[in-house]
Specification:
Number of strands: 12
CATH superfamily of the largest domain: Periplasmic binding protein-like II
Order of helices and strands: HHHEHHEHEHEEEHHEHEHEEHHEHEH
Strand content: 15-25%
CATH topology of the largest domain: D-Maltodextrin-Binding Protein, domain 2
Shape: globular
């Protein structure tokens, strides 16, 4: 037991550095039946305080960034220093990986990349909102669901295709919101399983609810990144209907009814990837719908996990690059996006970050091809839902989910 707990602690520490992307701005605690009920009560009493805190934090962050940028601009003008491009990301490990690949860009364009390490997606979006009338950030790294919100609010500008020429070499799904931003990497949610306890993996998401896996399965809660996608896939399986064609609200309700019927089979409903890693390491679970990028983390810790493609398809999770509307360095910002999309940098970054490249001409080390999406066949197996639709339904579905799991 001490050995398993020590492994769990070590994995939690590793995950703290590696999970910024996976969290996607969600809460950091797992969702159980009792926790869901308590969370719903707490959310109602703290909503106003949280909103005020977020607004104050965004205002303070904006003022701090503006002051730093003003000082930097004055210094640059006085001394003839290099042009500075402010790039906002999650912090480590993204910022560490980014620093490893931007050196040639800085030399080529005689500039300095200033990395603004604003952790959560929501925090970065709030900062851009606060700076809307006087942007201090030039390029934003952000996950796809938050990029959709930013685009809807007019915070990002359309990429200049005459500068970002590498767009032509990307998979079609990377063209984000018709040229307003672009995906630069992709992670997938699919079936991750422990080969020691489950030699034969489940073939589909529906299989995860089978009684033979009862008490061994970990699934994403509705407020997590993959929760809504899993709900839609189960609704399609149960109804035989297809999202975007004939899938209805009644089919969604039927999926919730199915969740309620099978909820006791599920060991853990998670919001945070740290909970999944801990549950695998302690042997609490043997199967999960989880991200491919964390397979090597678990393997390195001695958990004998493997990746399995679900029959329904794997859910894509895109990380995007966006040029902030009103950027004072728009041309250089577009050059930076183009640089990050080049086949060479895509290959290098993928090997560093364990995130699949979106440039068709990029390469991937053989040891990563077993769990990262690579090549046309893997791309064909992606299941991509409309994030604008999901964002519009997420609050309603989260409420329904909370009621179902709490009953």
């Amino acid at each position: 037991m001490k050995k398993n707990l020590s492994k769990a602690l070590a994995l939690t520490l590793a995950f703290t550095c590696a999970a910024s992307l996976a969290a996607c701005g969600t809460a950091s605690t797992g969702t159980t039946a009792a926790a869901s009920k308590a969370a719903a009560t707490t959310a109602g009493t703290t909503k106003a305080a949280a909103a005020a805190t977020t607004k104050a934090a965004a205002t303070t962050a904006a003022a701090t960034t503006k002051a730093a940028a003003t000082t930097a601009a004055a210094t640059t003008k006085a001394s003839g220093a290099k042009e500075q491009l402010v790039v906002a990301d999650w912090g480590a490990p993204t910022s560490t990986n980014l620093k490893s690949v931007v050196g040639d860009f800085e030399k080529k364009f005689n500039c300095t990349i200033v990395i603004d390490e604003t952790g959560g997606n929501a925090d970065r979006l709030n900062k851009i909102r606060a700076q809307k009338n006087d942007p201090q950030t030039d390029v934003v790294f952000i996950t796809d669901s938050f990029a959709v919100i930013g685009n809807q609010e007019g915070l990002f500008t359309k990429l200049d295709s005459s500068v970002v020429t590498n767009l032509k070499d990307l998979y079609s799904f990377a063209d984000f919101d018709k040229g307003t931003g672009t995906a630069y990497s992709m992670s997938r949610y699919g079936i991750v399983y422990n080969k020691d306890s489950e030699p034969t993996p489940p073939a589909s998401y529906m299989d995860l609810f089978d009684d033979k896996y009862a008490g061994k399965v970990c699934l994403p809660a509705m407020t997590s990144t993959a929760g809504p996608s899993l709900l839609l896939a189960i609704a399609e399986d149960l109804s035989g209907h297809t999202y975007g064609k004939d899938l209805s609200d009644a089919d969604i309700k039927a999926a919730f009814d199915f969740y309620q019927k099978k909820k006791n089979n599920i060991a853990l409903w998670y919001n945070s990837g740290a909970d999944v890693i801990n549950a695998f390491s302690t042997g609490e679970i043997s199967v999960a719908v989880f991200m491919d990028m964390f397979v090597p983390t678990l393997q390195k810790a001695g958990v004998n996990v493997a990746w399995a493609d679900a029959k329904e398809g794997n859910f894509s999770g895109l990380a995007t690059l966006n040029v902030v509307k009103g950027s004072k360095h728009e041309k250089l910002a577009n050059e930076f996006v183009n640089y990050m999309l080049s086949a060479d940098i895509q290959s290098k970054y993928a090997a560093l970050a364990f995130e699949a490249p979106v440039n068709k001409n990029a390469t991937l080390p053989d040891n990563l091809k077993g769990f990262l999406a690579f090549g046309s066949d893997a791309m064909k197996n992606l299941k991509i839902y409309d994030l604008a639709y999901i964002n519009g339904k997420k609050a309603e579905w989260a409420e329904s989910f909370s009621k179902v799991i709490s009953q």
